[in-house]
Structures are given as C-alpha cells and as structure tokens.
Fold PhoU domain-containing protein.
Amino acid sequence: MSEIALLRQQIEFELVAMRRGLTGLASGRARHDFIHASMSRIGTCQDHLAHHLGDNTATMMVCQIYIDTMEQVLPQE
C-alpha cells in the first residue's frame, strides 16, 4: 500500500474515532481532549500528504475524506 493510501486510511480512522467519541459516554474536558488529539493527528497526516501532493490537493483530499466519513452510517455498538 502506498504512503498516500496509508495516510488517507489513517485520516479516515481518526475521523471515525472522533464521530464515535462524540456519541460516547465521555463528556466535557475528556471529550475535548480526545477530539483535539485526533484533529492534531489528522493535521500531521495532511502535512505529509501536502509533501507528496501539494497543499491545495492535500486540503481538498482531507475535506473529501471528512465529508465521506461523516456521511457514512456507522454500525451501532
């Protein structure tokens, strides 16, 4: 698997975790810290994508992954 594919997969993983974190039992500061950490990891992945693809393409890719991930119906746990 290419580095770009791995970065895309990691971004999707972080976004799914964030979605689940928003609906989980954690609240307040714990939830904020969890989401902040995920966003930070997504930012790092975006920086790596930008190194390979350029800033604009990386930004568009992350935005599209965000849209696609947020529109998915997640299985109930």
Remarks:
- The chain has one domain: 3-71.
- The chain has a mean pLDDT of 88.
- The first helix runs from residue 3 to 23.
